[in-house]
Specification:
single chain; 9 strands; mainly beta; 4-stranded antiparallel β-sheet; binds fe (ii) ion
């Protein structure tokens, strides 16, 4: 895989399997968190609800919540990988520099981006979509 760069801080990988995705992600650095992102209820975090998410960086919300509670947040989210387990019509948005892109992830595809250089969000109904999300800290 070509490296994520300032000019191109994201990559869309073609269909492969979830275990290939996980092995690829841990080749990029140290895994900080693995999460299932989908509609699992109507309470709690945005990653578990059917809500649109404005452009953001992963980890910032967790860091803010931890600070409010006086707790430490020691995860470093340099790279985010989103592997699509089940697709829907949801659009994933990326914005970097003065550029932006909307992607509808298909089952088996993975979107991997530099969380420091890229903002991301989502639009439309999440519906049945399930993603496997991995946060990686660069070595
Ligand atoms: Fe996010």
């Amino acid at each position: 895989m070509e490296d994520l760069s300032e000019k191109r801080p994201w990559i869309l990988m073609p269909a492969f399997t979830a275990d290939q995705f996980l092995l690829h992600m841990i080749s990029l650095g140290e895994p900080e968190e693995v999460t299932l992102v989908g509609v699992f209820g109507d309470r709690g975090r945005g990653s578990r609800q059917d809500v649109e998410l404005p452009l953001h960086r992963d980890g910032e919300y967790s860091a803010r919540k931890a600070a409010e509670a006086g707790l430490p947040f020691d995860k470093q989210v340099d790279i985010v990988g989103l592997y699509c387990i089940r697709e829907s019509s949801t659009i994933t948005s990326l914005a970097w520099g003065s550029e932006s892109l909307d992607i509808n992830l298909k089952q088996g595809q993975a979107l991997i981006f530099d969380n420091n250089l890229c903002l991301h969000g989502r639009k439309g109904e999440v519906g049945d979509r399930i993603l496997l999300r991995v946060w990686v800290k660069r070595r």
